[in-house]
Amino acid sequence: MKYYVCYKNRRILGPMTKEEAIQQLFELKGTFKRLYVLIVDENGKAVGRIGRKR
User: Average pLDDT for residues 46-51, to the nearest whole number?
Assistant: First the structure.
């Protein structure tokens, strides 16, 4: 699995591990609103999110 930090439906950081992505999410959340972590499988298909709900 690959994890990307996203803002306004664009990947701004990644790919990274789950722990790195969550750490980056909390570090940047005070600066940017609507950040979330997108979970992507090995085939490039989005399988979930951590953070903001739609």
Answer: 93
Residue span of the structural domain in which 39 resides: 2-51
Backbone conformation region of residue 25, classed left if phi is above 0, alpha if psi is from -120 to 50, else beta: alpha
Looking at the 3D structure of the chain, how many domains does it have?
A: 1
Which neighbouring-strand residues pair with 15? none
The Cα–Cα gap between 43 and 22 comes to 22
- The predicted model scores a pTM of 0.88
Record the tokens describing residue 3, joined without a space: 């994890």
28-42 pLDDT, tens digit per residue, is 988 888 899 999 999
The DSSP secondary-structure symbol of 36 reads: E
Contacts 24+ apart (CB under 8 A), 42-46: 42/1, 42/2
